[in-house]
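Class, carefully examine what follows:
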Amino acid sequence: MDELVVDARGLPCPQPVLRTRDAIVQASGAVRVLVDDPAQGENVAALARNNGWQAQIETRGGDTHVLL
C-alpha cells in the first residue's frame, strides 16, 4: 500500500485542510499529513473523519503527523 504524504507545515489555515481534501480524493491508500500546529492536525483529522476516513494523530518533535 502506497502512502501519500502531504507536507503542510508552515501553511496558514485553511491550506492544510484544503490540501488534505485534495489528497483523499486522489489517494489509493494511506495519507500522511504533516503540520506544525496541533490545532491544524485536529482540523485535518475532523475533515478526514467527516469523509469516512479513520485518523490517527501523532506528535513527533515539533510536528504533528496525521495518518489517514
About this structure: Residues 38-50 form the longest helix (13 residues).
